[in-house]
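FIELD: query
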Amino acid sequence: MANTTCTIGVDLGTTYSCVFANGKTIPIEYGDVQRSAVRVSRTNWTLVSASDIADAKRPHLTLWKRILGRGSEDGRLARDVESIPAAELSEHGARYKVHDQYVEAEEVAAFILGRIKAAVCNIYRGQPLERVVIAVPAHFTQRQRQATLDSAEVGGFDPAIVQLVEEPIAG
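FIELD: result
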């Protein structure tokens, strides 16, 4: 098994993420489907569990990838930022401010993708990744697509094997 390669499919959703490899979903940290959010403390980042969301005592420390790659030209961005704790508009779009530091949504997505890669590598030890396919919404702009690719690279995936595919849209 160590000599074979592995192809994975990632749904890096706005609310939930999951990964699929060799005919099955791969548990990330809290099961087969993971919240697309990160809890930030002064010393570390962790993926958000369902109980973290339900608890929601400190929503300003929970960062979502919802603002990923969205620029100031996005007419809905200002309204979305108002509804997301810790999010604020910046000259390039939006970002988070937590513990007096700025965090870009690309960093949040990169952290989630890094945890996905770690989960896959833990299960398929010794099998090199041949291809990583990440589903993105069909309405994603080129900027959002590039932000997703950049996040995948920062998360530890070789950009030469990463491919974006549009997820289907209900009509």
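FIELD: remark
The mean pLDDT is 88.
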